[in-house]
Structure formats: C-alpha cells, structure tokens
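Readers outside the structure-tokenisation community will struggle with the description of the input data as it stands. What matters is that the chain and its backbone geometry are given together, residue for residue. For illustration, here is how one protein appears when written out as sequence plus structure tokens:

…
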Amino acid sequence: MLQFPSKILISLTFLFAIGCAPVEPPATSGGSGTAARHMVSAANPLAAQAGLDMLRAGGSAVDAAIAAQMVLTLVEPQSSGIGGGAFLMHFDGRNQSVESYDGRETAPRSAHPKMFQKDGKPMKFMQAAAGGSSVGVPGLIAMLELAHRDHGKLPWHQLFQSAITLAEKGFAISPRLSGLLEREKILRGTPTARGYFYSATGEDRAVGTLIRNPALAKTFHALADGGAKAFYRGAIAKGIVDEVRRASNNPSGMTLGDMAAYRAVKRTPVCAPYRQWQVCGMGPPSSGGLAVAQILGLLEPFELGKLAPASSEAVHLVAEASALAFADRNAYVADADFVPVPKQGMLNRAYLRKRSKLINRTRAGGKRKPGVPLGATAFKFAPGDGTKGHSTSHLSVVDADGNAVSMTSSIETVFGSRLMTGGFILNNQLTDFSFRAERDGKPVANRPAPGKRPRSSMSPTLVLDNDGKLIMAVGSPGGSRIIGYVAKTVIAALDWNMDMQAAISLGNFVNRNGVTELEQGTAAEGLKSKLEAMGHEVRLMSRVSGLHGIRHTKNGLQGGADPRREGVAIGD
C-alpha cells in the first residue's frame, strides 16, 4: 500500500438515467459527461447503470465495480466475466492510499512448459485457444470478494441484483455483440453455447433480440448467497472442471483441487513519477504498470506539451519510447512469484534517462534490444512470444467519498475458450503464456508452469498529483496494445491538457518494438507518410481499444467512454 497526504476531492453536477427495463445499447456511443458526487464509466450502458445504482444506494467504488462487472458478464460475454480474471487498482480517498488486487488466472497442476506445442513446434494461436487446456482457474470472483472485504459498504448479495434481474428478464442483443456473434465460427459448434447465442438451428439472432440466461441467474444467486466459496467449491467448480476436461479440443487436466486452491492476491502497486504527477499501475504478473511507467519515464526529457497533440513529432517520440519499453517488457516481465522481475531497476530514473538518450528526435531506431537494468545481471531467461488476446473490458469508478476503482477484466480473446458452463464463458488466458519453452538454450520467463499466472498487458491506471490527490482513473482492453492505448490517453490528458473524452477519442498509435501502428479512419492515419520518412515501418490498425476513464477537474468529475465501443460515463 502506498500512502499519500490527505486531500479533499472536488466535483460538479450531472444527471444521466437509463431505464431499469431491458434496453438495447445505443448504436453510437462514447457518452461522456460531468458529475458532482460520483461517476461510472463502463463498456455497456446497462453495466454503467448497475454501478450507478449502487453509488446512489450509498455504495463504494468497489461496490459499483462489482455490480457493473456482473452485468458485463451477461451483456458483454465476448470480453470479460466471472469465467475470467482481472486486475483492480483502488484509491482510498480518506487515507490517500493506492492498493492493487491481482485476480489473474492460474495454471492448473497439469500445466507444463510445452503444453502449447505439437510435434515440438508452437501451436497456431486458435488451435491452442479454443478448447480446455487454455482455460486458467478463474480469478475474478475471488479478487472482487477480497476487494469488497477491504472497501465494500453495501451487502455482497445486493451487488448481484441488477445482473440477476437482467439475466432472468432478458436483455437486448447489442449491435457489437450481434456483429461478433455473426462472425464467430467456433462458438456455433459448442453445445453449451449454441442454443443460447444462436437459434436452435444455429442461425444468427438479430440486433435487439431479447435473450434470457436462467443458467447465469442461478449462478449469480449462488454467488450472492455463498460468496467466492460457492464458485471455487461445489456445483459451479464442478461445472467448470467437467467442461474443460471433456472439451473436444485440447482437454484440460484441471481438477477440483486446482479450483479450491485459487487465491486472489494484494500486490504492491507500481507507482512512478511523471513530471508533476504520480502514475500508478499493476505490477507483475501484468506488464502494464511497468511498461506504461517506462514509456512515460523515457519521455520525461522531451517537452511533449510544446508539441502539437498527436503530431508526427510527438507520435515519433512516443513510438520510440514504447519500443524501448517493450524490449524490456518482453525480456524481463512474467509472474514475479516464479521469475525475479527487476522492477526497481526497470523504473530507476538514471536507467531510464540513459535509455532515453537512445531516442533520436528525427529518426526511428528500429527494433530495440532490452537494456540491463539493476537486478537483471543474473537474469537467466529469454524473451518469449507476444500475446494475441484482445477481448477485454475496462471500467472506472469514483464514489462520493473520493474513492476510485480502475479495473480491467478479461477472458482473453473474443469469447475466450469458446467453452461455457453455468451460463458464462470460460477464459483462454493460459495462451498468454509463451508457446516457446526456451530460446537459445535459455528458459523463457513467461513459459507455463503449475500455479503460475500468465503475463498480461492489462493496465488499469490511477494518476495522482504530487500531493496524492486523485487526478484520473483510466484503462483499456486491446491485448498487448493496451499499454500504448493507456499511455496515449495519459499523455493526451496530462501533456496536452485534453478533456477525458477527447483524450480517449484521440486516434491510437502503438509501437510494440517493431512496426508503428496507426489507427485507421482517424487523424493518426494521416501521419503515415511523415513517419515513414523518419524511418518508421508503419501499419494501419483497426479500432479495437475500449478506453473508459474519469478525470477530476476544477469543475468536477469528467467522464469519457470509448466511441469505438458501446459504453457510457454516467453520474450525479
């Protein structure tokens, strides 16, 4: 836990309401607003409303996050849910403290370094992802219960009521969900999912079709009454184990013992200075907090505020810093319970200043090699594969007491493992491990092992001023691109003084130590020729972020929701 001096948070009035009856999320989104007392920004209006209802009932930011996440399990099943995991950053408004909660999935005891290889070669991604062996023991429920014990105000069972009502009475299929289901191939053949997501004959359901999920309602009732114990022991746990063990593709060796052994963990947050602010994120097994902090630290010598927002000069510098950060990330970051991650060395200001000198203001440096931060001299691991998952969700909450939550949750790729039990989709997070067990005779840091948590890029972020006052809560889905999406938004808000919505909506630009990617259909696409002239290899990418954030301003809480998805920011 990090402690900061006590300060008072400020706000302004805004009212936004969504009816309690099942509704269809809007075709266009990115709803933003301001609020005086409290606010929720989430990827679906029904989820945001469920969180706001808890805040209006006197609940805490954690209470609102739990209620919103339960609804996301139902209405955004392609992205996150109780069959997956999450990282949660919490800001305590009274004590000016930051805590981080690790609900990342763990590998079962049957896991081994070559589990995603066939005939000695790495499997193709979807060959490994769709099936039983990709499923890690879900961590979301255990993590949320732990956070609720520390910071909840409302009774646990009350937080499930909105999700139960929607599951029983039905919700309308949104345009985004409908489009993903239409393109999905594997889920159609999954017996436990086919009849729910599609018609009895396997045909698509139209946008606006009301669907009910009595199986998930039953699961929610059990969790509301029995807490996390009801998830990790008994009928729900047995349903998960049975589903992954009998999977037709890559059956898992997961056992009821693996389920019962799961524990959520409170970890020391990664907090680092950036100009006059403090930026706090999640540490290993997430690479997000370290990578975002490194990018910002590498950029400190450059006066970004004097450059035009998202100009070719600015994007060049951010891309170069990102390439250097990803070189270190790929080499050193994995589950710190299994691998000695040199966290302090990677964030050492002298080390970052030295690495920053590798950035040429006018010329791209190409693919970078990792540095040698303090603590890495005895490192005996090799870089592994990048991760491919990109179906994740982020929500941000600020409550009336000045507490805040920034939480990123995921089932990894779209519809996870394509396996379903108890009305919810199971994750494929174990494919976030490296498929290669070793390189050049060295073991890969992020290779599978029993009980190990796969490396993630999820980057739930809290920004504070140097007095410890909360400035912003933000995060995004997007696989390993999450790091770039979050760094871009933090820079846009802090260096370019954009409001929360403008910072989120700004065209994305990412470099993961290779190609510089620019978001097509945005102003960023227009930078292609200029960046190529500077030596960048440029590729256009689709609109896959899902940034949701809340920012404190002199006029109150200012929310933003990613127009690339269906979310809203609402409050009072």
